[in-house]
Amino acid sequence: MTKPAARVPQRRNARSNRARILATARKELGRNPDITLEELARASGVVRRTLFGHFPGRVALLEALAEEASEALRDAAVAGVKSTGPAERALAHFALSMWPVGDRYRMLLALTRHDLGAERVAEIIKPARDEVTSILERGQRDGVFHTHLPPAVLSAGLEALTLALLEQVNTGALEDDGTRSAVAMLIAAGVPEKQACAVVGDVAATVTTEATEAAEATEAAEAAEAAEAAEAAEATEVAEVTEATDAAESTAD
């Protein structure tokens, strides 16, 4: 009756394997959408059986990635919504919040024509696109951004710019922690360069603080989970020793 507790460490190991497989898939599929599951297993450092244990096929893996990307992009969009005040600050906050999950954009777009389909990708990215368009509309009304292009069209252009800059970072042609891309986005929207740099620099400090607090919360949660798993494993070991002792005594009697 104590056996289920013994599986707690195994479940933690399974979650770790699953997370590693997904992280590797995000990276490799962004570079090569045609990579096989066997190749992904090797790149993830797991055997083929382990990968298929989590994802029975390519469709299952891609849907898991799509859901993960959808959640990450929604979180980034929500972070952008939290920024109040002038539209240029809101756009900078959004750009900086979105940068860490930029690879998910690239991965999803790479898979559009191969597996997920344009409609599914558009569904996942829609909240982020809608938020940028909303910020641009507000900025154009306030005279902060240029009105040469409609908000939705300008939003599409800024998205393409961000993806292009992210690709340059991945190839090593550009070093950026997201601030240079955010400045470029504001300039493209019509904010003077000097002002764009000042706004991004100020907003970046806020985003960094938010990221640090989130990381600390995650670390605390993981530590608590590890302690719980260790406690459960110890309880299982004690129970098994007791069970073995009782069995030995019963045999002796």
Evaluate the radius of gyration: 24 Å
Helix content: over 70%
By secondary-structure content and strand pairing, the structural class works out as mainly alpha
- Main beta sheet: strand number and arrangement? none
Tally of helical segments: 11
Q: What amount of the residues lies in strands?
A: under 5%
Order of helices and strands: HHHHHHHHHHH
Task: List low-confidence stretches.
Answer: 1-9, 213-218
Number of strands: 0
Q: Mean pLDDT score, rounded?
A: 79
- Globular, elongated, flat, extended or rod-shaped: what is the shape? elongated
Distance between the termini: 24 Å
Notes on the structure:
This protein is an all-alpha fold and 253 residues long. It contains 11 helices and no strands. It has helices at residues 3-6, 8-31, 37-44, 48-54, 58-81, 87-98, 102-116, 118-141, 151-171, 179-189, 193-252. The longest helix has 60 residues, at 193-252. The chain is elongated, with a radius of gyration of 24 Å. The relative contact order is 0.11. Residues 1-9 and 213-218 have low confidence and may be disordered.
Q: Descriptors for this entry?
A:
mainly alpha, 11 helices, disordered N terminus
Topology:
Layout: H1 3-6, H2 8-31, H3 37-44, H4 48-54, H5 58-81, H6 87-98, H7 102-116, H8 118-141, H9 151-171, H10 179-189, H11 193-252
Helix pairs in contact: 2-3, 2-7, 3-4, 5-6, 5-7, 5-8, 6-8, 6-10, 6-11, 7-8, 7-9, 8-9, 9-10, 10-11
